[in-house]
Amino acid sequence: MGTPHNEAQTGDIAKTVLMPGDPLRAKYIADNYLTDVSCFNTVRNMSGFTGIYNGCRVSVMGSGMGMPSMGIYSYELYNVYDVDNIIRIGSAGAFDDDLNLMDIVLGMGSCTDSNFAAQYNLPGIYAPIADFTLLKTAYDVAEEKHFSVKVGNVLASDVFYNDDTTVNDRWKKMGVLAVDMESAALYMTAARCRKHALTILTISDHLYRGEKLSAQERQTGFTKMMETALETAVRLQNNRQMEAL
């Protein structure tokens, strides 16, 4: 098997994959949360690992930055490796006044300024949304753990350094909570492949208060988001096993 971007073979990757943007965050999760770990990919240094978390087989792999990169890796995971669920675990810049650094945001929907949907030749504007079962499960986990979590619309932007300095204000007035750079591509790819996706974000910057985390804090400090995603994967597997009885 294998692709130009992923050297994994059949069976190397679990049905649920956690996808941070940073491959070093993938390695951190593998090193600190998983047992019986095997590395299935090192192509382009986009590390991928499969291991066991609380009796559940789960994989974690970097997605890189931006929607083209997410589009490639998620498409291959869904179509080549028969992955069912992808949970993006990434960082985001906050618009919402009530969000603080390290808060968790679950992306119920993902607005975008990207042209990613043009490939589908749709007769209107597509609304990328999360899988409800993944969303509800993750929300329940975060609530039970008493994590600070908010659910709503996010923005997936193609532009990090935007020449138009007014764009954030316009998204904010529509109630968009925060901005990342991958969620819309993940949701659209999942919809096209008839698979499941969720974006879980940790606030790393507040774009209106000038607050931000360090690069090291982004790599290793998002433990609440990681634990929420891992426990969501466990509950998905347990529910699937119950349904099979």
Automatic annotation (TrEMBL):
<comment type="subunit">
    <text>Homohexamer; trimer of homodimers.</text>
</comment>
<feature type="binding site">
    <location>
        <position position="5"/>
    </location>
    <ligand>
        <name>a purine D-ribonucleoside</name>
    </ligand>
</feature>
<feature type="binding site" description="in other chain">
    <location>
        <begin position="180"/>
        <end position="182"/>
    </location>
    <ligand>
        <name>a purine D-ribonucleoside</name>
    </ligand>
</feature>
<feature type="binding site" description="in other chain">
    <location>
        <begin position="204"/>
        <end position="205"/>
    </location>
    <ligand>
        <name>a purine D-ribonucleoside</name>
    </ligand>
</feature>
<dbReference type="GO" id="GO:0042278">
    <property type="term" value="P:purine nucleoside metabolic process"/>
</dbReference>
<dbReference type="GO" id="GO:0004731">
    <property type="term" value="F:purine-nucleoside phosphorylase activity"/>
</dbReference>
<dbReference type="InterPro" id="IPR004402">
    <property type="entry name" value="DeoD-type"/>
</dbReference>
<comment type="similarity">
    <text>Belongs to the PNP/UDP phosphorylase family.</text>
</comment>
<comment type="function">
    <text>Catalyzes the reversible phosphorolytic breakdown of the N-glycosidic bond in the beta-(deoxy)ribonucleoside molecules, with the formation of the corresponding free purine bases and pentose-1-phosphate.</text>
</comment>
<feature type="binding site">
    <location>
        <position position="44"/>
    </location>
    <ligand>
        <name>phosphate</name>
    </ligand>
</feature>
<dbReference type="GO" id="GO:0005829">
    <property type="term" value="C:cytosol"/>
</dbReference>
<feature type="domain" description="Nucleoside phosphorylase">
    <location>
        <begin position="16"/>
        <end position="228"/>
    </location>
</feature>
<feature type="active site" description="Proton donor">
    <location>
        <position position="205"/>
    </location>
</feature>
<feature type="binding site" description="in other chain">
    <location>
        <position position="25"/>
    </location>
    <ligand>
        <name>phosphate</name>
    </ligand>
</feature>
<protein>
    <recommendedName>
        <fullName>Purine nucleoside phosphorylase DeoD-type</fullName>
        <ecNumber>2.4.2.1</ecNumber>
    </recommendedName>
</protein>
<keyword id="KW-0328">Glycosyltransferase</keyword>
<dbReference type="InterPro" id="IPR000845">
    <property type="entry name" value="Nucleoside_phosphorylase_d"/>
</dbReference>
<feature type="binding site" description="in other chain">
    <location>
        <position position="21"/>
    </location>
    <ligand>
        <name>phosphate</name>
    </ligand>
</feature>
<dbReference type="Pfam" id="PF01048">
    <property type="entry name" value="PNP_UDP_1"/>
</dbReference>
<dbReference type="GO" id="GO:0006218">
    <property type="term" value="P:uridine catabolic process"/>
</dbReference>
<dbReference type="InterPro" id="IPR035994">
    <property type="entry name" value="Nucleoside_phosphorylase_sf"/>
</dbReference>
<feature type="site" description="Important for catalytic activity">
    <location>
        <position position="218"/>
    </location>
</feature>
<feature type="binding site" description="in other chain">
    <location>
        <begin position="88"/>
        <end position="91"/>
    </location>
    <ligand>
        <name>phosphate</name>
    </ligand>
</feature>
<dbReference type="GO" id="GO:0004850">
    <property type="term" value="F:uridine phosphorylase activity"/>
</dbReference>
<dbReference type="InterPro" id="IPR018016">
    <property type="entry name" value="Nucleoside_phosphorylase_CS"/>
</dbReference>
<keyword id="KW-0808">Transferase</keyword>
